[in-house]
Amino acid sequence: MRVDSNYINNPNFFDVLIVGAGPAGLTAALYCQRANLKTAFYEKETPGGKVVKTSFVENYPGYEQISGPDLAMGFFKQVSSLGVKFIFGEVTKIKKFDNIFHVFSSDNLTRYAKAVIIAAGMTEKKLNIEGETKYYGKGVSYCAICDSPLYKNKPVAVIGGGNTALEEALYLSDIVSKVYLIHRRQGFRADASVVDKVKNNKKIELFLDFVPIEFIGENNKINAIKIQNVNDKKMYLIKVDCIFPFIGFIPLSNIVSEFDVINKETGFIETNSKMETKIKGLYSIGDINLKSVRQIATAVGDGAIAGVEVKRYIEENFQ
């Protein structure tokens, strides 16, 4: 198909636009740019996605251990060195007209592309209990690496039982005086090696079979958390200076609500093995996809596949 000259002469017309700059999005940008496609990516926060907020990474090939920010910066520098355009802002809506995607964003500028890759990831799931919203940024934090220096040698609580919760508890234990790890059951969803480290860490105290009931504060800052035992229903109050909930994530898939690509039960985007959605030219990669494993390594793999497939799609469908 031929592209209308109105698009070709528009400086805001791209071969591919990528929404999100986590490991998946940056890998896709790397492959697209190296394939000589005019490429740009959007990011509303710091490039690197959730990796930026991860204290350390031990399961990415080539590194026994590396800090999350360092790994994220490596991804970003490599892509930037190739000349990929970085658009700081939030994509609000995507439409498709005459085989060209129209991407609307918070900077009030519409951009156009032959193909779009969604790599928007997920946002933190909230507990929705009393005090959580009131004390956000005043002792309630969703980023240990960002805020831990504020609580050096002070007691904190971590809520959750997955890899993120346990890894952040370990990170915090090197900085704070005490970590109270609160989880609603006895078993953990985290890797066995991480669980062992937590159980053997003398600065981490486990409160298993407990759920948070209320975040309590005074003078506009957190000073305690109220928890309840799920078995005997008894309430306990733990004095802490900060609370870090790590209970899961919600996919940021609303931007493609115009298209029938979202799984109705989970909110994640459905793709095939080529990272293609039901809509020709629309690809989705990384944590936002309906998949069983969400790791940096799988995100990078998704991005590589999408980059190769987008190149093939454009060659086969545009003159």
Primary descriptors:
seven-stranded mixed sheet; four-stranded parallel sheet; alpha/beta; 18 strands; 319 residues
Produce the secondary structure layout:
Layout: H1 5-8, E1 13-19, H2 23-34, E2 39-43, E3 56-57, E4 66-67, H3 68-81, E5 85-88, E6 91-97, E7 100-105, E8 111-118, E9 122-124, H4 144-147, E10 155-159, H5 163-173, E11 178-183, H6 192-199, E12 204-208, E13 210-218, E14 221-229, E15 235-239, E16 242-245, E17 249-251, E18 282-284, H7 296-317
Parallel strand pairs: 1-2, 1-8, 2-5, 8-18, 10-11, 10-16, 11-12
Antiparallel strand pairs: 3-4, 6-7, 7-8, 9-17, 13-14, 14-15
Helix pairs in contact: 2-3, 2-7, 5-6
Describe the structure.
By secondary structure, the chain is α/β, with parallel strands linked by helices. The chain has seven helices and 18 strands. Strands 1, 2, 5, 6, 7, 8 and 18 form a seven-stranded mixed beta sheet that branches. A four-stranded parallel beta sheet has the order 12-11-10-16, covered by helices on one side. Helix 2 (about 25-35) packs parallel to helix 3, helix 2 packs parallel to helix 7 and helix 5 (about 165-175) packs parallel to helix 6 (about 190-200). The longest helix is centred in the C-terminal third of the chain and has 22 residues, at about 295-315.
